[in-house]
Amino acid sequence: MRLPQDRTIALDTMVFIYHFEAHPLFSPVTTKIFEQIETGKTKAVTSYITLLEILVKPFKEGNRRAVSDYTELLCTFPNLEFVPIGKEIAKVAASIRARYSIKTPDAIQIATAIVSDTALYITNDDTLKKISEVRIMLLKDMLS
């Protein structure tokens, strides 16, 4: 697996979750993705929706340590930028949501990828393959 170099990619929340939970099928792929990001071969963006979604389980379980650890790790990870949801992303997300009838969090993630001028958006959500404004790559297609 080779990601575009000298370009920015966008990551869906599930890429992080599969990595943190050491998913038996997808963690080898996510490990390679995060190695390329950490070493600077590829830069990555995601929206703060990712942080929100990752922190739900630790908050639900009352695991303050995990909340702190995940927040620290994610917000200081080299070559990974969390993009704030501003006016431009909101407008693009609304347009994407209207055009494709996808959920608001997915629309925000896709809009973040578009506004950030990324080379591709990595997810494992088949329903997002219909998006034409940014190249969508599924983790399951990266398994070879």
Morphology call: globular
Count of extended strands: 5
| Low-pLDDT segments | none
The residue-averaged pLDDT reads 94
Compressed to H and E, one letter per element, the order equals EHHEHHEHHEE
| Helix content percent band | 40-55%
- Total domain units: 1
* CATH classification, class level: Alpha Beta
Radius of gyration from the CA trace?
15 Å
Report how far the terminal alpha carbons are from each other: 8 Å
Largest sheet: 5 strands, parallel
Strand content: 5-15%
* Number of helical elements: 6
Strand order of the largest sheet: 3-2-1-4-5
How is the CATH topology named? Rossmann fold
Give me the CATH architecture, please.
Answer: 3-Layer(aba) Sandwich
Q: Would you tell me the structural class of the helices and strands?
A: alpha/beta
What does this structure look like?
The protein is α/β, with parallel strands linked by helices. The protein has one domain (8-84, 118-142): 3-Layer(aba) Sandwich (Rossmann fold), CATH 3.40.50. 50% of the residues lie in helices and 14% in strands. The chain is built from 6 helices and 5 strands. Strands 3-2-1-4-5 form a 5-stranded parallel beta sheet.
